[in-house]
Every structure is written in structure tokens, then in C-alpha cells.
């Protein structure tokens, strides 16, 4: 029977060596090479490697998160401008303007997370966090946004945040799964 | 090109010391010789390699089916840095990388 601690060590080691930056690929392989020879102390070795890899991955994750949050802001701003433009031209009624933001927000969050997960399967966690939280945080900073939309629909702020983050996580994981799936051959 | 000389931490010196006078050592052997855990060892190995104080190469696994192993050896620049740090006047300047 597989020792659960050994299995955990292998999982941590795989996580540590996953998606290293280009200049750390060799070092990630070096860590794995040593890990493969270990009979004892595997968990300790893998945990240390994971800690080291988190440090070298942090700048890349932060850049990705900033880029994604910027994209969310631009899309949100564009959508609100589009809504106003349609309303001013009489193409969008007041009733529709009150009803449409909620499904747009929910579907938009899921679709964006799915696309981001497809494009960056290795960054599903960052995608879920950014797409789940960034729109609300940006909205709060600007005095409006997704939380207001969800709260208007009767959801408390904590529930609204959890719902958006959960939806983003679902989309990101689904996208990552689709992106990582090997191509099917006839 | 190696970076300009900087102060070496005691841990970095311990790594260079472990490699000094020996042929190629694996990461686990360096870890055993210095007492450094993997989370501290690899950032130090990377910085020392970036500074040209050690060199690395891949060695074939001793047992079939295992991945190749990365091994390390001190360079001439590494030996000079170690000698410089061991000088009594340099011991006061130990800082950290």
C-alpha cells in the first residue's frame, strides 16, 4: 500500500517543479532528480523545494494577476460604457438596464475564467482569485461594481464574493482541464 | 558574465566550503555536508551559479529508470571568493546574499 506521506511528498514535489520560469527549468529538474533518489526525508525535501519554487514563481504570478486584473477593469469599464451608450440611444430600456447586469456579471465571470484557464492552465488558482475578487475590489474602490449588483439582487457581500470566486474557480479549473486535455485522435 | 563581487552569507560560504577540494557533488550531498534544507539550498546554489562561483552539469543516474542528477563543482572564482572570505580581515564583512 502506498504510504500517504510519500504520496503527499510526490504531489508537493510535482507542484514545486510545475511551470517553472524559463531560467529555473533546469533547477526544477535538479530538485526532482534528487527527490527521485530519496528513500527517507522525502516530505521535508519536497516541502523545501516547494517553498523555493514559490519564491521564484512569485514575480510571474504577480505579473499575471496584474495583467488579468487590468483586463477585468478594462472589460468592466467597456461594458458599463456600452450599457450607457445603448441606454442613451434608446436601445436599452430602464427595466433591461436593471435586470441585465446580474446575468452579464455571472456569465462574464465564468466565461473569462474559462478562457483564462484555457490560455494558462497552470495558473488556475491565480485566475480564480483574481477574477473572483478583483472585479469586486475594483468596484468597491470606485464606489460601484459587482458587489453592488449582487447586493441589489439580495445577496449579502460575503455571499456575493464567495459566489463570484466560486464561479471564477469553476471556470478556471474547467478551462485548465480543457486546455490540459490531450488531443483526441480518430 | 558573473556579477560584481558581493558579500557571501555564512550559508553560501558553507556551500562553497563543502564543494571545495572535491569533484562533482549532488544536491543531496551538499545538503548533507552543510545541513541546509532544500528550501535554503537551492536558492543559494542558483545565486552562486549565477555569480559564476560554482558550475553544474547533469550526470547519468546510477540506477536505470531514475532521472539524471544535477551535480555541482566550485569554480576558480568560487575558490577565490572562499579564500577572500576566509581572510581574517574579511570575516567582519560577511553579509548576505
From TrEMBL, chain A:
Highest taxon of the lineage: Bacteria
Keywords noted in UniProt: Membrane, Transmembrane, Transmembrane helix
Membrane as UniProt keyword: yes
Sequence intervals crossing the membrane: 64-86, 98-118, 125-145, 157-180
UniProt name for this protein: Uncharacterized protein
Provenance organism: Caulobacter hibisci
Lineage of origin: Bacteria, Pseudomonadati, Pseudomonadota, Alphaproteobacteria, Caulobacterales
From TrEMBL, chain B:
Source species: Caulobacter hibisci
Transcription regulator PadR N-terminal domain segment(s): 20-84
Pfam families xref list: PadR
Domain of life where this protein originates: Bacteria
SUPFAM superfamilies: Winged helix' DNA-binding domain (SSF46785)
Gene3D superfamilies hit by this protein: Winged helix-like DNA-binding domain superfamily/Winged helix DNA-binding domain
Name by which UniProt lists this protein: PadR family transcriptional regulator
InterPro entries, alphabetized: Tscrpt_reg_PadR_N, WH-like_DNA-bd_sf, WH_DNA-bd_sf
